[in-house]
Amino acid sequence: HEYDLVITNGVCVTASDIATYDVGIKDKKIAILAPSGMLANASTKKLIDAEGGFVMPGGIDCHVHLQEPSMFGKGSSADSYESGTRSAIAGGTTTIVSFAPQQKHEDSLLAALNATHKLASGSCYCDYGMHLLVSNPGPKAISELKQIKEEEGVSSLKIYMTYTALQLSDYQILTILLACRENKIITMIHAENGDVLNWLTDKLEEKKLFAPKYHSNSRPPILEAEATNRAIALSSLINNTPILLVHVSDPGATFRIREAQTHGQPIFAETCPQYLFLTRDDLDKPGFEGAKCVCSPPPRNEADQKLIWKGLRNGTFSVLSSDHCPFRFDDAETGKKTCITHEHPVGRFKYIPNGIPMIETRLPATFSASNMTVTKFVEVTSTNAAKLYGMYPRKGAMIPGVSDADLVIWYPESKKPNIHLTNEMLHHDVDYSPLEGRHIANWPRYTILRGKVVWDRDNGGIVGEKGYGQFVKRETATLNNVWERVEEEGEFDLEMLVYLAVIILQVARVR
Ligand code: URP
Ligand code: ZN
Ligand code: ZN
Ligand code: ZN
């Protein structure tokens, strides 16, 4: 056989083009994009007729929490590497990047990475990379970053400006930013002011306001905008070190990001479906039901949703990730209900584990909303993630001879499934979906990972195997030539920084 798999009658979409091509796949790679019809009679082991449906690079979800210890006490996030990646392929995602969490009492990052490899190895249905999650940036951790980047294939890490168990001081953030600049590592920042939200939480509790909806009151938009602004300021202090603001929900934060980008600063941003589809009203339900939508930052309002969609269309947000971090609802041992006690029948919002399941619904829900062009959809759900996290063009593209044959094929207009979502349709290990009952117009019909059909919705569903997913060693980010621009700025120079600070102070005084 000339090909292992041929896809005919597809409308191929990449981040830059839409065109009808037949796709020939050989040895796990895209081998050829041929004029439509040309491969209809080619010699191939397997043939898929896309019937006019879209064929695009598989989804890349670069913000996924699997088997992570809960910051709220008992247990860990609900999905394992097995169930989480199974859910990913059923929703058209072929590569995830999850987190390898370092605990505050641990000094090594390599140990955290190795521990997470043990959880993932042999368990995954899709390909996977890892970000470090740094909570203790001491000398040992910092000294390991070179090896982590150059040998372990980890070119990004995440830090927190909130959560007592993880929060870093500005001092520690500067230490991380400088080390990341030297090693060309992208710093992902969870920007919420932890001290402010702890203070507001105590005030709400003093007034006996415990219900899930008060999670939203404890985290008003200004607290996200303030931390976002501070993160951008700290990045500029370290000679414009690239950062990515994760899970941005607030238009105020978005405008600040946009402004920094306009000034040429290497500030990237991510948003998530929860900020496109959920609002504060979803937290404001009778009893404890609102806990199903408790995540941080919290869902905002409808006007805010519109501005977040706009930020995706106009490029303020480079990536749309799931921030999949589920906790079971009806589980008093390790799930959302751990905070319900005799004295607190509606729980205490401050103890509700934060995070929701979204790994499987990210692509179908966003695609179905059709609020952006289909090329833009591929850009923010796949291609930009590949570029930002050092996987392009092996991932996130359809370049013959170069790109892995990771593809998602959608139903054509004439065969759209028109789904009303129920949790039973999903493949995660969670007992609810925050999108329960929503109308979803289309769904991935096939998911293909390195040339192998792993999801066939009409014939067997999950047809891939646990363990077929491989670890992806990642390289330096290429999105917007970000590190070339950093190199142009030259070495980080502390004397220059002090000199500039003096000038800035003088200017401030003159004003
Ligand atoms: O609520 C959220 N987002 N939980 C997941 C952890 C994080 O901050 O990303
Ligand atoms: Zn976060
Ligand atoms: Zn997260
Ligand atoms: Zn309907």
Oligomer: single chain
Q: Any idea what the shape is?
A: globular
Major sheet characteristics: 9 strands, mixed
Average per-residue pLDDT, rounded, comes to 96
The number of distinct helices, counting runs of at least 4 residues, comes to 14
Q: Which range does the strand content fall in?
A: 15-25%
Would you identify the regions where 5 or more consecutive residues have pLDDT less than 50?
none
Bound molecules: N-(aminocarbonyl)-beta-alanine, zinc ion
Rg from Cα: 23 Å
Count of DSSP E strands? Answer: 19
- What percentage of residues falls in helices of 4 or more residues? 25-40%
Gap between N and C termini: 75 Å
Q: Which structural class best describes the helix and strand composition?
A: alpha/beta
Could you give a short description of this structure?
The chain is an alpha/beta fold and 511 residues long. The chain is 31% helix and 19% strand.
Describe the protein.
There is one protein chain. The protein is α/β, with parallel strands linked by helices and 511 residues long. It has helices at 81-90, 109-120, 139-150, 170-183, 194-206, 214-217, 221-237, 251-262, 274-277, 302-313, 362-369, 374-388, 482-489, 494-510; strands at residues 5-13, 18-26, 29-35, 47-49, 54-57, 59-64, 93-101, 127-133, 156-160, 186-190, 243-245, 267-271, 319-320, 407-410, 419-420, 439-440, 444-449, 452-456, 461-462. The protein is built from 14 helices and 19 strands. Strands 1, 2, 3, 4, 5, 14, 17, 18 and 19 form a nine-stranded mixed β-sheet that branches. The chain has an eight-stranded parallel β-sheet with strand order 6-7-8-9-10-11-12-13. Strand 17 (444-449) and strand 18 (452-456) form a beta hairpin. Helix 3 (139-150) packs parallel to helix 4. Bound molecules: N-(aminocarbonyl)-beta-alanine (URP) and zinc ion (ZN) (3 copies). One zinc ion (ZN) binds next to loops. Residues 54-454 form the Amidohydrolase-related domain. One of its GO terms (molecular function) is lyase activity. This is Amidohydrolase-related domain-containing protein. Belongs to the metallo-dependent hydrolases superfamily. Hydantoinase/dihydropyrimidinase family.
